[in-house]
Design brief:
Layout: H1 3-13, E1 33-35, H2 46-50, E2 56-57, E3 62-64, H3 73-77, E4 83-85, E5 100-101, H4 114-120, E6 124-130, H5 136-143, E7 156-158, E8 167-171, H6 179-188, E9 194-198, H7 199-204, H8 217-221, E10 226-228, H9 235-245
């Protein structure tokens, strides 16, 4: 390819590097939902009935980001247009309770941990394991290290061996076939260590929560320190959640 061809490609693609990951809002992204504060119609349960993962409850209305697959079915059937998906990628949480969106709430932010900041604030090594995932979350996790997001600028890197890792990043619903592999990876990690659950499948089981081949005992035993919702989560959702946990500006 000639230098002129390279320049034409560069001009057509624009600037790929995202300078400020904290302020970036991806165009066309279906991110954190907002629920309007106006009352629902009497006895209306259209959004709950349309949800494929039982992420929505009514009376009072609430939406569980840990179950939500961002399919937009609730928006399409709601006669009051109470639920709107915004382009906001910041949706991470340190507890399952913080993943619940209620009417009038407009922000979710991971509470910074002084302990995690002290231990991993300057250097964090991640080992990713797909526990029966469809590869969507895995592709987005790969993207956090590319030229666009460049998470290495914060001292955060993926490692090939759990023996070198500080955190185990799990995606997928945790199937029986991956039960031993997940346990082996966790046991190989030195202390201090923690788990990050990425995507609706890892957080709640998602569409496969009631599947006969799903075994989620590991997460019941080793509770995640961080939940990153989405189906799949945007790289910005993952990066911002990690930085919030570490107390990074």
């Amino acid at each position: 390819m000639s230098i002129f061809s390279s320049l034409r490609v560069r001009v057509s693609q624009g600037r790929q590097y995202i300078g400020d990951l904290r302020a970036a809002r991806p165009a066309g992204f279906r991110g954190r939902p907002v629920i309007g504060s106006e009352p629902c119609a009497a006895d209306c349960s259209a959004c709950r009935d349309a949800c494929p993962t039982q992420a929505i409850t009514v009376s009072p209305l609430a939406l569980d980001l840990g179950r939500c697959v961002f399919c937009n079915a609730c928006v399409e059937v709601c006669p009051e247009q109470k639920i709107v998906f915004t382009p906001e990628p910041k949706m991470g949480a340190a507890t399952l309770a913080e993943l619940i969106v209620r009417p009038g709430e407009e922000a979710t932010r991971v509470t910074a941990s002084a302990t995690f900041s002290k231990l991993f604030g300057r250097s964090l090594r991640l080992r990713q394991v797909s526990a029966g995932g469809c590869n969507a979350c895995e592709l987005e996790l790969n993207a956090v290290a590319n030229v666009n997001f460049d998470v290495q600028r914060f001292g955060i890197e993926w490692v090939a061996s759990p023996r070198h890792a500080d955190a185990l990043v799990l995606s997928g619903p945790l199937t029986r076939n991956m039960q031993e592999a997940v346990r082996l990876a966790w046991d190989a990690m030195p202390d201090p260590r923690f788990v990050v659950a990425v995507g609706a499948c890892a957080i709640s089981g998602g569409l496969y929560a009631e599947g006969p081949m799903v075994e989620r005992g590991f997460l019941s035993e080793v509770g995640p320190a961080l939940y990153v919702p989405g189906c799949p989560p945007h790289p910005l959702t993952f990066v911002n959640a990690i930085l919030d946990l570490l107390g990074r500006p």
